[in-house]
Amino acid sequence: MKRHVSAKLQLWGILCALGPGTALAAQPACPATMIVSDQALRERWPDLVPRVRDEVLSRDDIDACASIKLRLAADTTIRVEVALPDGRAASRGALRPEDVIPVLQALLLMPEPLRVPAVPTHSRATDSTNPLLRPRIRAPERFTTDSAGANGPSLASRAGGLGVELSVIGGARFGDGQVSYGLGAQSFLDISGWLVGFEGRADRYHQLSGAQAQTALELGVVAGKRIRFRAVTLDVAAGPGFAIKGALASQTEVAFVSDSSDPPPPPPPDARSSPEPSSGPVPRVLAGVHLGFSPRSVLRTFVGFDGTFGPARADGLGPNSPSMPRWTLGLTLGATVGTP
Predict the structure, then answer these.
(1) For residue 216, which of 176, 272, 188, 251 has the smallest C-alpha distance?
(2) Of the residues 167, 200, 272, 340, which has the fewest C-beta atoms closer than 10 A?
(3) Tens of pLDDT along 78-87?
(4) Three-state secondary-structure class, residue 96
């Protein structure tokens, strides 16, 4: 009889342990996250609350005990309020419908715990004897003209504020029935990519009709822009100038003085007048485009095209005076010495 009673008591204890207490412990503390919205919000955006429930509350990494309240503000924007059982609360206002879900995710998502790697501790004696554990001294970075420094721009771009250069140029031109070839010099002041300088050139002109060749001197002031690339530079410059073709004298006269009353003999035909040997100072417009190589070198070369435009001769000169071509176009080669 006592054994039977003892067995009943043991069975009763097991049922109590597995009964209502266990069932209550297995139930979650928060059955579901509660969403509260007003009537005006549901009428204006009827699909907003279902989308929030599908895209936010379906996740398993949010706080299930949160309380969400959505309401329509006076300015037709949405206001979101989130409250947690521990008393924490947050709210955001002036939201559009597409902003509600990102805001709720930012307020409700629980971040993953940071994994801090374990830092091994070593004694000073071990660190000093083991060469693998000694701190490495980092050598200072060496910046070249092509490499960018720690603060951004390269040394070449930071040092390119002012430069002076002198060039020797040569080339050939053609235009308006004449062909020329010559040599000259060019000097530029480079101010952060803007060019200002002088140009002088002497050319030998030949008429395509077979007339006698003549020499011309050309001087000008030019200004322009230099565009820098990684391996080349592109210079575009233009400016006013003038050119003189032939000698500077214009006419020769011979006079005879005699004490006798007889009229002087007529001068020889070749001494009365001579053809005007100069075109006079002719205004010109100078222009050129040069492609430079090795821009970071002190000695560099370039190739390009240049041209001139202007009248044929100065005003007041006859048709026998030399004439400059009204336009020319040609190829230019050159070498430059100056600051990179």
Answers:
(1) 176
(2) 272
(3) 998 888 877 7
(4) coil
pTM: 0.48
Query: Tell me, what amino acid is at 135?
Result: P
Decide if 221 contacts 206 (C-beta within 8 A). no
87-141 pLDDT, tens digit each? 788 888 878 888 888 888 788 765 544 455 555 555 554 455 555 555 555 555 4
pLDDT (tens digit, 9 = 90+) per residue, 279-307? 889 999 999 999 999 988 999 999 999 99
Cα–chain-centroid distance for residue 14?
Answer: 80
Closest CA to 34 of 105, 96, 97, 84: 84
* Residues 78 and 91: beta-carbon distance below 8 Å: no
CB 186 within 8 A of CB 167: yes
Q: What tokens were used for 282?
A: 């002719």
Distance CA 64, CA 70 (A): 17
* Domains contained in the chain, CATH given: 30-108 (3.30.160), 158-251+270-338 (2.40.160.20)
Q: Which two tokens stand for residue 280?
A: 């006079």
Instruction: Compute the distance between CA of residue 235 and CA of residue 223 in angstroms, rounded to an integer.
Output: 10
Rounded to 5°, angle at Cα 48 from 47 and 49: 100
Task: Evaluate if residue 178 carries a pLDDT over 90.
Answer: yes
Q: For residue 146, which of 294, 292, 335, 291 has the smallest C-alpha distance? A: 294
What is the residue-wise DSSP string for 179-226?
A: EEEEEEEEEEEEETTEEEEEEEEEEEEEETT-PPPEEEEEEEEEEEEE
Percentage of the chain modeled with pLDDT above 70: 66
Structure tokens at 18: 């597995």
Q: How far is CA 263 from CA 127, 253, 256, 257, in A?
A: 122, 18, 10, 10
Tokens representing residue 128 in the block? 């000093």
